[in-house]
Design brief:
alpha+beta; Protein Yojf, Chain: A; Trna Endonuclease, Chain: A, domain 1; five-stranded mixed β-sheet; 15 strands; about 45% strand
């Protein structure tokens, strides 16, 4: 059963957390300082923070803004709790990496314990490589008669996503982006084209930039350099049979 306490005393927090922290996720919100010693040293003066202690020993400290935690300790961290002069203390130690973190709470506004049932496996889709896979399987989404010869073709400037031959036998360099590309993507495509022409001085080669959406400014840059663009939005399937378009992720 999940439990929530509002404005508990330090002794109440200590008694409850000491019993529950191995079986449940513990969330503590309150006024505290945070000191970390390990690969570096950091100290956070008194402020209101949210601390999460997970069942595997992972500890995360969040401030009121920002996505990333301001401090954290990895799974397997040893946790000890104490009360000293009305302060609720949390001592965290990861001996294998020689890391320590100490939090001193002068006031706890909220204490919660949660028993989370989460055995699902994350399905990760929508990567650029997934998009390339679909183009390899269905090259006609770029143009009819296109034949994919190689992926990740190495050049001096890096790896060409797809190297292809069109229906007229002309080499085609394809650069794939999962997000709307900018001017840098055009420069990247141009570098690959120049590398190819350097090794094949008399060869005609086409360049195509492919993305779910190509901004107007980028289209203009491509046209000015004699390159082309294609908009392609792949569809990905999840294990539950559901489908998502790539533009739902971006």
């Amino acid at each position: 059963m999940d439990r929530i306490f509002l404005a508990p005393s330090s002794d109440e927090v200590f008694d409850f957390v000491s019993r529950e922290h191995r079986q449940r996720m513990i969330i503590v919100a309150g006024m505290c300082t945070v000191e970390y010693r390990g690969r570096a040293f950091s100290f956070l003066p008194l402020g209101e923070r949210l601390v999460m202690v997970k069942q595997d020993g992972c500890v995360i400290v969040h401030r009121s803004r920002g996505r990333e935690p301001v401090n954290w300790m990895p799974p397997g961290t040893r946790l000890d709790y104490a009360v000293d002069d009305q302060l609720f203390l949390v001592h965290c130690e990861k001996r294998s990496s020689r890391e320590k973190m100490v939090m001193e709470f002068v006031e706890v506004n909220l204490l919660a314990s949660l028993l989370l049932n989460d055995s699902g496996q994350q399905s990760l889709v929508g990567l650029e490589s997934d998009m390339v896979d679909q183009i390899v399987e269905q090259p006609h989404v770029l143009e009819d008669g296109l034949r994919i010869v190689r992926r990740e073709k190495q050049t001096i400037s890096g790896s060409i996503d797809l190297f292809a031959i069109d229906r007229d036998g002309v080499p085609v360099v394809v650069e794939v982006k999962r997000n709307p590309p900018g001017a840098q993507a055009v420069s990247q495509l141009e570098a690959y084209i120049l590398d190819f022409r350097e090794k094949n001085r008399r060869a005609v080669v086409r360049g195509i930039l492919c993305a779910p959406r190509v901004p107007r400014m980028v289209r203009t840059l491509l046209t000015d350099k004699g390159f082309e663009w294609r908009e392609f939005t792949p569809i990905f399937e999840f294990e539950d049979g559901g489908q998502r378009r790539l533009d739902e992720f971006i």
